[in-house]
Protein: SDR family oxidoreductase
Organism: Nonomuraea harbinensis
Amino acid sequence: MTNTALITGASRGLGLALARSLAEAGWRLVLTARGVNELERAAAELGATAIPGDVTEPAHVRRLADAVPELDLLVNNASGLGATPLPPLAGYPLEAFRVLLETNVTAPLALIQATLPALRARRGAVVNVTSDAATGAYEGWGGYGATKAALEQLSNVLAAEEPELAVWWTDPGEMNTRMLADAVGADEAASATDPAKVAAALHDLVHTRPASGRVSLQ
């Protein structure tokens, strides 16, 4: 039986690295991201199904759910950084915060809700990618960190409510990604961990299937 994974934010960074790792292990992959060209190149490389779009749009969530009537793994990796340069909370633009909540909290919950029947049927797993900013008081990271803290508690409750599923909220640590470069600059980001190394740890997590909970991947 072939395992199926749905990965958001899969055109680059951790999402793409995990897709490559799972493809090598023979998984069927459904990949989504907003960047059409990058996503289609990734899908062509991996023999995956590409469904470009924005996970905050209900119609796109429905398309994704329809594409995975059988689902073993949902990876909510797509994420927004929020306002940049990273502002203090005293001056955080509230509209930008509302958009960030929609992307980092509401959209993952919507996709979980839409795919739960398929996940339950296969006793599948959910990975919600969070951050150490969810637990640490890092200046400038209050908006982003607050959304990731909300995603962590959402994951915690989901694990309690869906005991037949594995639910992990994973802290990947700092990775050399475009998002980190946007936050701290390209030079600092270049010294961070290669996403492929984190993806290997995440693949091991899926393979070994420990109990639901928070997992640090570095």
